[in-house]
Amino acid sequence: MSDEDGTGYLSRLADEMEAVQLQMGAELIGHARLLLRDRKADPRELRYLSNRLIEALQDALRIAESRGGRLPGPGECESDGPTQTSKKPNE
Q1: Quick check: 67 pLDDT over 70?
Q2: At what angle do helices 9-37 and 43-70 cross, to 10 degrees?
Q3: What is the spatial distance between Cα 82 and Cα 91, in angstroms, rounded to a whole number?
Q4: Mean of the pLDDT values across residues 57-61?
Q5: How many Å apart are CA 12 and CA 49, to the nearest integer?
Q6: CB burial of residue 37 (10 Å; 0-12, 13-18, 19+)
Q7: What is the CA 22 to chain-centroid distance, rounded?
Q8: Other Cβ atoms within 10 Å of 87 Cβ, number
Q9: Model pTM?
Q10: Where is the sequence biased in composition, kind Polar residues (predicted)?
Q11: 76 Cβ partners below 8 Å, 6+ apart?
């Protein structure tokens, strides 16, 4: 169930989830800055932080790829949609 104009229920739900993921990533960056300034941070804390940063980066990349797939290509307007050619696939 998808909507082409990006205003349907699934698109809004995805937008909300993406906003939460990006906010969590931003908060994690703030935490990372504080922890990295602390010379007493132990390896276990740094390893935990590294794993959380990896998760946040994976979320951000997933969002970027998803959004990128919905953006128009070079030379296309948003309203144009995919370009159609009159050639058959084997020509």
Answers
A1: yes
A2: 150
A3: 19
A4: 89
A5: 30
A6: exposed
A7: 8
A8: 7
A9: 0.60
A10: 81-91
A11: 82, 83
